[in-house]
Design brief:
The chain has 394 residues and is mostly helical. The chain has 18 helices and no strands.
Length: 394
């Protein structure tokens, strides 16, 4: 199990660095391309559309080629997308969002497929949470290194360095392909019907449907936080390096918190209830985020943003482990892709709504508050008693 966890941790860390860099470097990119700040929301909305398609169709490819092989392809896709963005300017970012991130979206379902086989059931939330710390670790690295490298290499050079790193890590995974992709079925057919089957597979099960709606709210709020927080801080008067450093600092909180929630969900509290209280926590902290002003101290902003990171950036392991637990044997990747597809719908809608509110009001406050509403509804829904007992497939 440890080899599987380390492999998935590495690929998710490297991939998340590449995916967060456009947000971290957004002030420099916007200035050079003479774009509106609302462009950030549009870009991440496009990445979510592409990821939605990629995750809905990922199940068959993972079964056919194996989790490690698809993880390699995901890393190469992230790196190639950054290269396209560097070369193509505004049009390149559109292609990067649609093509690069669409294929890269298979990374998390691939991880779930692998861990679903190797993780011991009682410890699954804990194991999934450890792996999922890779995402805030990657975002932390991106927020810390991105502005610093950009001072000497520019935003283009910084993204190219990250693209090279993705290719390097994809190569490092090659020896594990034969060792861990032992259940790959090369003859498994790839059908367009898989897109529909993936969605219906989660909607017809009450517990999976609740997880899907939770993923919608949580991922949507997370997408707004990642896409706009650095730009928001620069609008409050912070320079890019300071904003990036604060962003990295609060993101670092998500690393131990993901492990903590997985540990609590594995041994002490029902995962459903853990996710409910995370929903209420992220809703309250995002409303307070909308109240930031130049009068707020760095410490006060850091505390609120830290709570937001501890909730909106820390739910992944426990939600994904529940999705894998409820999946039929051998279908963890497909079921996870179905649940995550609802998360991508949230990542499409929430940044788009935030962008619209930014244009309509000229400020950030309304957008932050609106993003809290789905989280509150999900928190209430997860506290309601379940109608059926949880399914056990193993």
């Amino acid at each position: 199990m440890m080899i599987a966890v380390l492999a998935m941790f590495s690929q998710q860390t490297c991939g998340s660095v590449g995916r967060v860099l456009p947000a971290v470097l957004a002030p420099l990119i916007i200035l050079e391309l003479n774009a509106d700040p609302s462009w950030v929301g549009v870009y991440y909305g496009l990445t979510a559309v592409a990821a939605l398609i990629g995750q809905l169709g990922s199940g068959g490819f993972i079964i056919r080629h194996g989790a490690i092989r698809m993880s390699q392809i995901a890393l190469l896709s992230v790196g190639g997308g950054m290269g396209i963005a560097v070369i193509g300017g505004a049009a390149g970012f559109v292609l990067s969002a649609l093509v690069g991130n669409g294929v890269a979206a298979v990374a998390t379902p691939a991880s779930s497929q692998l861990l679903g086989r190797w993780a011991v059931r009682p410890y699954a939330p804990f194991a999934f949470s450890i792996t999922q710390t890779a995402i805030p670790a990657g975002i932390l690295l991106g927020g810390w290194l991105g502005p610093t490298l950009a001072q000497s290499l520019g935003w283009r050079g910084t993204m190219l360095v990250s693209a090279w790193a993705c290719g390097f890590f994809a190569l490092l995974l090659q020896p594990l392909h034969r060792r861990l992709d032992t259940e790959a079925v090369p003859t498994h057919p790839i059908r367009l019907a898989d897109f529909v089957t993936t969605v219906t597979g989660v909607l017809r099960v009450d517990d999976l449907r609740a997880l899907s709606f939770a993923c919608f709210a949580f991922n949507g709020l997370q997408a707004v936080f990642i896409a706009y927080f650095v730009t928001y801080l620069t609008a409050l008067g912070y320079d890019l390096v300071s904003a990036g450093a604060l962003f990295s600092t609060v993101i670092a909180i998500a690393i131990p918190c993901r492990i903590l929630w997985g540990w609590v969900g594995s041994f002490y509290v029902a995962p459903r209830h853990v996710m409910s209280w995370l929903a209420f926590g992220m809703a309250g902290s995002v409303v307070l985020t909308g109240a930031f002003s130049e009068a707020w101290s760095v410490l006060a902003i850091g505390v609120v943003a830290g709570i937001l990171s501890a909730t909106a950036m820390s739910w992944h392991g426990i939600l994904l482990s529940e999705s894998a637990r409820l999946a039929p044997i051998g279908r963890a990747g497909a079921i996870t892709g179905g649940v995550l597809s609802f998360g991508q719908m949230g990542a499409i809608l929430c940044p788009s709504v935030f962008s619209l509110m930014l244009r309509l009001t000229g400020g950030y406050s309304a957008g932050w508050v609106i993003c809290a509403v789905p989280a509150v509804l999900v928190g209430m829904n997860l506290l309601r008693p379940r109608r059926t007992a949880p399914r056990r497939t193993k």
